[in-house]
Amino acid sequence: MIASILIIVFSLALFVYWFRYTCLLILSAKATKDYGRQVATANQLSFLDVQENLASPSSLAVLADLEKSLDRDYKILTSLLSHAPGFMAEGGAFEQRMLRIDYWIMKLWLAIARRLSPSQATDALREMAEIVAHFADTMGQASAVKIEA
User: Fold this and answer.
1) What is the dihedral of CA 62, 68, 77, 17, to 10 degrees?
2) pLDDT tens across 77-87, in order?
3) Which among 18, 90, 92, 121 could bridge 113 via Cys, Cβ 3.0 to 4.6 Å?
């Protein structure tokens, strides 16, 4: 009985580690051309401003405003991506689902960290902004492929 519990706990810990590592690996991979700025400008997204604001320490009220901006951008980009032709091609759908789950995990962590540590809350917001930036870049790449075809 104890062995089974230990195996389950250890397996769960390894899964969480794999999930976090894979999400961070996806976010660290850079494309040859960054389309994020173009997509942000075309769709009036504010994730670039959020990333700049996170470079310096912020109050909890400012972090709440930045979170609202990221949530708005996230909703716009996920809607655009779900309607983009060719989105499901080339295994991108699995990566996008993982990053969507990671976004909501970071949102949950932000709610917890906001009460415990402003630096941890800032780190959570920073990762959320990276996810939104990745989605914007993915949207730009999908649009560029559509234009070239």
Assistant:
1) 80
2) 988 888 766 55
3) 121
